[in-house]
Specification:
mainly alpha
Length: 133
């Protein structure tokens, strides 16, 4: 009887602790979401500044050699995707991760997002992801 009551008490305590942990996790979802938005905004702005410097270096060369501007939309999209894929492969090589198609798709999506939001970086309000203005 003692062993059964002890086992039941331990199970009841662990169930209560699990329910408390789940409740705290659910309660903190908005804080995690806000942190996630800030991290994404920081990464996109950092990427924008990096890509802008690369494009400003490549633009005169491309205009002289090919007669096209790296700052125009279709070429900017292609270059952003290529730069993101190359940086992703470099990061995976440095971290000694196996190169697979899922991280490459993530980095290509990053390049598309930077290009898609390129104009928003010039707005006076800046980049607002998921915020009501």
């Amino acid at each position: 009887v003692f062993f059964t009551r002890t086992l039941f008490s331990i199970c009841l305590l662990s169930t209560s602790l699990m329910m408390l942990a789940v409740a705290l996790l659910v309660r903190s979802i908005p804080a995690f979401a806000e942190l996630f938005v800030h991290v994404i905004r920081f990464l996109l702005k950092w990427s924008y500044h990096l890509y802008q410097r690369i494009f400003l270096l490549l633009d005169p060369i491309m205009q002289n050699q090919l007669g096209i501007s790296a700052m125009e939309m279709p070429f900017r999209m292609i270059l952003s995707v290529l730069i993101s894929a190359c940086l992703g492969c470099l990061i995976m090589l440095i971290l000694r991760l196996r190169i697979s198609w899922i991280p490459i798709v993530v980095f290509v999506s990053h390049g598309i997002a930077v290009t898609w939001l390129w104009i928003d970086f010039f707005e006076p309000q800046g980049l607002h992801i998921g915020e009501k203005i």
